Structures are given as C-alpha cells and as structure tokens.
C-alpha cells in the first residue's frame, strides 16, 4: 500500500551546486570570411540528434547550410562545401530514405547511389566528412575502411549502457583535441560505438579509458569497451573523415565535448590555415 505523504521521511536537500564560470566561444577558425563552408545533412527521416546540433550551431552563430537528399545526389559538393556533417542516423535511412510510392517523389530515396558517389568524390577532392555514431557505419562501408563496431553483437546481458558518462583518453597533441586536456567525459548511449581498427591508415584520436571508464550512470561489461578507440580520423585522397563513436552534442548540453566537434569542423579545411 502507498505510504501517506504525512508519513514520508523528511530528507534535507544538499546545497545547490554552483554554476561553473564557463563561456564557450567558437574557434577563430570557424568565425570570419575564411571559415570553412559547412553543410549539415538533413534527411527527410531527420533524426532528433540533427536538431540538437542545429540548435547549438544557431546559438553560437556558426554559419552552415542544410543539405537535403536532392543536393547530395546532384554531386559536385566541393563547389559549395568544405565540411559535411552527418549526425547519428541509421546508414540505410541515409542511403535509402522513404520508399518510392510512400510519399511524393521529392521526399523519397535518400541520398542514393548518386549521393554515395558524390561523397566519395567530395572527400577525395579535399573535403572533410564528419560522421557521428550510427552514421559512421555508412562511411566505413562507403570508404571501405578496416573499422568495425566492437560491441555491436554483444548480448545486452553482457554489455549494456543505457545512457552514461564515460571517460576517454585523448591524444593531447592532435589538432582535433585542441582546447582539451589528456582526458574528457563523454556521453555514451545505445547508438554509440566502440571501434575495432584493423587499418593502418586510420588514426585513433581518443580511447575509452582502461579498466572501468564509467564516471556516472550504469555500465554492464566494462571490459568490452575499456581501451577501445572512440574517435578516429583518416586521410583519403586530398580529404579526410572524422568518426565519432560517442555523441559529442547530446541534447545540446554536453559542453565538454563541443570543442572536439567544432575542431572536427575546423581542422584541415581552407579556414584552418593549413
């Protein structure tokens, strides 16, 4: 039976946690006339994560363009963009979209094979693609990388992270980690990845911490993720890919990993000075 409210135990509240003195500003390489031209892919099956990222970009005044499926299929992406960002979305959803006949034609088909070829040409001609979580699977296939999801086939009774904060160790000298220390907390949930890398061309920029990387929340099976790569980059032709295994912009709130996301958009493009 329910306990009457009058008989509930009285528990005193802890003191409020002070708001940290924190002021995030865009990197100089993303601000001004020499900033890279950024495209944010927006599917007709738009995931919630993409909306979070648009909100963060808008809040910080980051110029970007929305890329729809039809533009991807047109090709010559390098004419308009230096960087293209794919938020977490199932590869089949990006590639195939809604089936033909289910909606008006302009809303069906995904990026299709034409969009795949356009992405390949974009990177090889000097562009950068940044892919997050589920979207990394598409890029791994499209560019034939020796990378896999290390925890993809583990049963939930052995490995399960419903939404927790983990620690990752960073390469402090890498351009993608500018503004960060040797480690940072990251948000990991059911669409996140821990990579297996069997490709000498792929560079590991961050790894989940050894032992038990859990900082807050719940982690079943830490041995399956400890030490695994969490953030990758690879040069392809004149361009590059950046693959995030974790979500750097969860609900527009994970401020500690914003620098990694913004660095990924800035580094190695015409606005970075390189």
Q: What pattern of helices and strands is seen along the backbone?
A: EHEHEHHEHEEEEEEEEH
Q: Helix coverage percent of residues?
A: 10-25%
Shape estimate: globular
Strand count: 12
**Tell me about the biggest sheet?**
10 strands, mixed
Strand content: 15-25%
Terminus-to-terminus distance: 68 Å
Alpha-beta content class: alpha/beta
Describe the structure.
With 274 residues, the protein is of the alpha/beta class. The protein is built from six helices and twelve strands. The chain has helices at 48-59, 69-74, 91-96, 112-124, 135-142, 258-266, and strands spanning 38-41, 65-67, 83-86, 128-132, 147-149, 164-170, 183-188, 195-197, 202-208, 214-216, 229-236, 239-244. Strands 1, 2, 3, 4, 6, 7, 9, 10, 11 and 12 form a ten-stranded mixed sheet that branches. Helix 1 links the parallel strand 1 and strand 2 (65-67). It is globular and about 65 Å long. The N and C termini lie far apart (68 Å). Residues 269-274 have low confidence and may be disordered.
């Amino acid at each position: 039976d329910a306990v009457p409210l009058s008989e509930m135990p009285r528990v005193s509240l802890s003191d409020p946690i002070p708001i940290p003195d924190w002021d995030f500003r865009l990197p100089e390489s993303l601000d001004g006339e020499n900033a890279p031209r950024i495209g944010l892919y927006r599917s007709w099956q738009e995931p919630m994560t993409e909306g979070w990222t648009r909100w963060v970009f808008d809040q910080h005044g980051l110029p970007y363009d929305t890329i729809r499926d039809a533009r991807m299929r047109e090709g010559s992406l390098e004419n308009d963009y230096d960087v293209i960002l794919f938020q977490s979305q199932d590869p089949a959803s990006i590639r195939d979209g809604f089936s033909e006949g289910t909606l008006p034609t302009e809303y069906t088909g995904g990026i299709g094979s034409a969009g795949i070829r356009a992405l390949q040409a974009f990177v090889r001609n000097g562009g950068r693609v940044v892919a997050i979580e589920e979207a990394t699977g598409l890029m791994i296939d499209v560019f034939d990388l020796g990378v896999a999801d290390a925890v993809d086939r583990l049963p939930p009774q052995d490995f399960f992270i419903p939404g927790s904060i983990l620690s990752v160790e960073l390469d402090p000298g890498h351009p993608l980690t500018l503004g960060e220390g040797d480690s940072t907390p990251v948000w990991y949930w059911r669409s996140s990845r821990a990579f297996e890398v069997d490709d000498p061309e792929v560079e590991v920029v961050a790894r989940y911490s050894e032992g038990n990387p859990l900082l807050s929340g719940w982690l079943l099976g830490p041995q399956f993720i400890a030490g695994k790569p969490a953030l990758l980059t690879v040069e392809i032709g004149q361009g590059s890919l950046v693959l995030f295994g974790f979500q750097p912009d969860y609900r527009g709130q994970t401020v500690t990993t914003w620098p990694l996301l913004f660095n990924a958009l800035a580094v190695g493009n015409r606005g970075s000075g390189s």
